[in-house]
UniProtKB/TrEMBL annotation:
One of the record's GO molecular function terms: glycine binding
Protein name: glycine dehydrogenase (aminomethyl-transferring)
Domain Aminotransferase class V: 183-303
InterPro entries reported for this sequence: Aminotrans_V_dom, GDC-P_C, GDC_P, PyrdxlP-dep_Trfase, PyrdxlP-dep_Trfase_major, PyrdxlP-dep_Trfase_small
Length: 526
């Protein structure tokens, strides 16, 4: 018989079996790569280092007493090792990266060039303020753009990621509640079932009790459910909008009014802000605090290889409680308000300092570069294109994949469930693994939790119609194969990846974190 590549196979032989095995395990340009512990030497290094002169340690007994335990490699060996590993990794520069609720879009190279400019790429957080006026001006300009896009009066730039921003916003809310003398009574945070998973975790982390809010059959939050739960013990609601079902909350203004009438605050998870930039301003919707993932909305996915950035915009009700440090403009230039005492002189009441320094300068530069190169109209178009692309994917798959909330338009991501896979012998996980064989990173699976066997696809605005058409065609082919009973194509996938399917549950619960040499193999003659 023939496999899908037209190569002859024997009965029982896996479709990816190697007909012509090689001595090295390499398959032409597909290089097998061992761990550095397997070929490096623990007793040697590729660099000659002089023995240090006698010195007195200042580490207070915390210095390392044994060898570092890393094998020494020559420069060519080290270079080849990491290049070969990089060729096994899937990234946004490889192809479509359709993770839902985790925007993975093209990283404009202009932004990278700007982030490497002298004065940005080599700036140090402990430099005298007089030597970093340009960097502070960039932070001030970025803040102004964020305030304009969100319709909010204040922003804290220091949070380093989305969940860090959530923490910042909720700590500002907690500080405002304490300032009003209600810390002992307002202890409950309402979190809809359609929220991001970090929302309840953040609320619980800082001492609040989480109360879930059910979603309607259409995947959105019913204001009457919020009204029934909101009361004098309510501190805040944490609402994701657009939510994790890829839907804009149509009653968001009424929900905000209900929460405010109860004396509580409205925290909006802004991870999906990239769907509404230039279209809707959170401040106009009644939001009191919202984090913005600069690394998702305004350029590099997941921090461009480094830390992310999650600034938090704050309403008038919370602005005074923003953490230090923050930038202020004076007649003599820009300066940083670093201490709570200094902030008090500015009329502020910060809840404290959230992080050691001032945020992630590399992401500030990338985000502002993205904003300036797109302009207001370009950012609005990016949001529109993100929504258009998601609806294109949704419409092109609607006849094969089931949609939990009906055949209705979505925002920036299209959500499917696994009901279409019933009686096929194929699971959501199997389908995702088969996508790897087709050369695609799988979409987000099994999330959001309100949908059974969820498959959440976010194509982003940076994908062309040609790339989406090929992606859609691949998914349609997989879907038809599952429906006609070709379960073998799925249950053992991926067949063509450098490593086959892992027991991911066991790997997460029983990780092997230390390499141990294998037992030596004795020759038969011994």
């Amino acid at each position: 018989m023939l496999n899908r590549q037209g190569r002859a196979t024997q009965p029982g032989e896996a479709a990816s079996a190697v007909v012509h095995p090689t001595f090295t395990g390499n398959r032409a340009l597909q290089q097998e790569e061992a761990l550095i512990f397997e070929f490096g030497r623990l007793d040697a290094t590729g660099v000659d280092v002089d023995e240090p002169v006698a010195f007195t340690s200042r580490l207070g007994g915390l210095e390392r007493r044994d060898g570092i335990g890393l094998p020494g490699l020559s420069e060519p060996e080290a270079m080849r090792h990491y290049v070969r590993l990089s060729q096994k990794n899937y990234g946004i520069d490889t192809g479509v990266f359709p993770l839902g609720s985790c925007t993975m879009k093209h990283n404009p190279r202009l932004n990278e060039r700007m982030a490497r400019l002298p004065g940005f790429g080599d700036v140090h957080p402990l430099q005298p303020v007089s030597t970093v006026q340009g960097a502070l001006e960039l932070m001030d300009t970025l803040a102004a753009w964020l305030l304009e896009l969100t319709g909010m009066p204040a922003v804290a730039l220091s949070p380093k990621a989305g969940a860090h921003g959530e923490l910042c916003g909720m700590m500002a809310i907690k500080a405002a509640i304490a300032h009003k003398g209600e810390a002992g009574t307002r202890r409950t945070v309402l979190v809809p079932d359609s929220a991001h998973g970090t929302n309840p975790a953040t609320a619980a982390l800082i001492g609040f009790t989480v109360k879930p809010v059910p979603v309607r059959a259409d995947g959105t939050v019913d204001p009457e459910s919020v009204r029934a739960l909101a009361g004098p013990d309510t501190a805040a609601i944490m609402l994701t909008n657009p939510n994790t079902c890829g839907l804009f909350e149509p009653d968001v203004v009424e929900i905000a009014e209900i929460v405010h009438a109860a004396g509580a605050y409205f925290y909006c998870d802004g991870a999906n802000f990239n769907a509404i930039v230039g279209k809707a301003r959170p401040g106009d919707l009644g939001v009191d605090a919202m984090h913005i993932n600069l690394h998702k909305t305004f350029s590099t996915p997941h921090g461009g290889g480094g830390p992310g950035s999650g600034p938090v915009v704050l309403s008038d009700r919370l602005a005074a409680f923003a953490p230090v440090p923050f930038v202020v403009r004076t007649a003599d230039g820009f300066r940083l308000v670093e201490s709570e005492a200094d902030a008090a002189g500015q009329g502020a009441q910060p809840f404290g300092r959230l992080t050691a320094f001032h945020g992630q300068m590399g992401m500030f530069v990338r985000a502002l570069s993205y904003m300036l190169s797109h302009g207001a109209d370009g950012m609005k178009q990016a949001s529109e294109d993100a929504v258009l692309n998601a609806n294109y994917v949704r419409a092109c798959l609607a006849d094969l994949l089931s949609q939990p909330f009906g055949d209705r338009p979505c925002m920036h991501e299209a959500l499917f469930d696994d009901s279409w896979l019933k009686d096929t012998g194929v699971s959501t996980l199997d389908f995702a693994k088969a996508m790897i064989d087709e050369g695609y990173h799988p979409m987000t699976v099994y999330f959001p939790l309100v949908v059974h066997g969820a498959m959440l696809i976010e194509p982003t605005e940076s994908e062309s119609k040609a790339s989406l058409d090929l992606f859609i065609a691949a998914l349609r082919d997989l879907a038809m194969a599952a429906k006609r009973g070709d379960a073998e194509r799925f249950t053992g996938a991926p067949y063509h990846a450098p490593r086959k399917r892992l027991d991911e549950t066991r790997a997460a619960r029983q990780p092997i974190l230390r390499w141990t040499p294998p037992e030596p193999v004795r020759d038969a003659a011994e």
